[in-house]
Amino acid sequence: MAVSASEIKATYPLPVYNFRVEIGPNAVAFSEVSGLSIHYEVTTFKESQTGGGSAGPRIIHMPSQPQPVNVTLKKGVARSASVAALYSWIKTVTLNQVEKKDVVIRLCDEQGKPVISWTVINAFPTKLDGPAFDAKSNEVAVESLELRADAITMTEA
Asked: How many of the other CB atoms lie within 10 Å of CB of 156?
């Protein structure tokens, strides 16, 4: 049975390499994004059994507080304004004038159109790692930025 192009477009998974990251109003080219996780603490309630023949308490697990979000962004060091922008953003933490920003990660289709977006709400930098240097290597210099945020939302484009 032949599968049409529209069926493939609607049902096949999207590749992870075609994404775009926007920090506030600026688009920044990152090579890797991780930590897009939504999770909640679990609270355990114990309820006594009355009658019914079952011994011991009945245990119920319920979701409670949302956990904070930790996102890691990695990119190659390039001669551009993005290096200064990331450094100046983390420097606001040292000056105790923290700039919280929304970070949007858009997973795109083959034409570069966003399909799904994750919005990291009220993110601020907690760690900026410079590249590891090795005179015997010819790998790209990669820096890593860790963010802490209040929440993540997901939307379809």
From this structure: 7
